[in-house]
Amino acid sequence: MIDFEKMPPSRQPQGTFPWMMQQPPKPLYPGNRPLTAKENLLRIYRGEKPCWMPVWLTDSQYCWPDVYQEHAVFEGTGDDWWGQHWTYEPSIQGQMPTPGYRVITDIAKWQEEVKFPELDAVDWESDAKLQTARYDPDRAHLFHVVEGIFERLHELMPMDETLVAMYTDPEQVHAFFREMVGYKIKLMGLVFKYYDPIDYIIWGDDWGHQRSGFFSNEMFREFIMPYTKTCWDWVHDSGRFVELHSCGLTQQYIEEFVEMGLDAWTPQPINDLDMLTKKYGEKICLTVNQPEIAGAKSEQEARALIRRFVDKYAPRGKVVSGPIMNADEKIRNAALEELYNYSSEFYAKK
What we know:
The chain is an alpha/beta fold. It has a domain at 4-15 and 56-126 and 141-278: TIM Barrel, CATH 3.20.20. It contains twelve helices and ten strands. The protein has helices at 17-21, 37-45, 110-113, 124-131, 149-156, 159-168, 170-194, 217-237, 254-259, 273-280, 299-313, 329-349; strands at residues 60-63, 78-79, 85-89, 94-97, 140-145, 200-204, 241-245, 264-265, 285-288, 319-321. Strands 1-5-6-7-8-9-10 form a seven-stranded parallel β-sheet. Helix 6 (159-168) crosses helix 7 (170-194), helix 7 (170-194) packs parallel to helix 8 (217-237) and helix 11 (299-313) runs parallel beside helix 12. It is globular.
């Protein structure tokens, strides 16, 4: 029996994203399920029928190493392990690259100016003992590969210059991305080794803004797709799965996502989730949020909202519910119970 109360606390600053992801998990509600939440989620990723509709980041659990310095250590103000300076912003309880600081002064000089982190010098082993002590063996475990190949480039030099460089110096951008592939694969290999078990990754690389993607589909296929796919293929070859985190209105790349073999995507709500689930629900696992649950005033209302959600989305294929939120714990538990029971009935008949 897991004693969730005795799991070690996070060392990250309270309220930051890593701190939230390192919180010891709570027992799944309701309990007494026919198989683990991990196995149920992985069934969806494998294209098999689940027993119930999973809940995003409830049926799974983050692995966030404290020694992972793609940002300044402990989300503070300072340099990351690339030498890029970050500033902590209290209003968002997170960091942004500090304006005026840059590592790459000219894309043609990136090979001289960029020093790739010495991953073998990092004490992964000691940190892993702390992080894995919070693992719930019944949940799937994920590693978030933050600062993808495009994000890393525009963190080392300004965003506008990064996009222009794709036109003016494409060979330099390709060379940087090729080098990033080896770095990302080595990073993931070390995490998979020391923080085992890791069942899947969340690949983080923001490819859009609120109106569209940053690139035409042709440019996506030329610059982003081949290097990202190489990394994803390596993850798949290791027996694990890939979920995409990519902020923005990025649905224009959905055909490329499918072609790249992406297992799961959690689109921001500005994307057309109705269209995506109807057209691609059998090809890719999609997470759909249920913001209405947070506003439910009674258990009865929450249960009705859950039933409507399951009736709409479960028949469309591989759909995962977004987090179930409500300030009233009784209402939240009623929603979780209804989702488990009602979706179980649906899948049992399917």
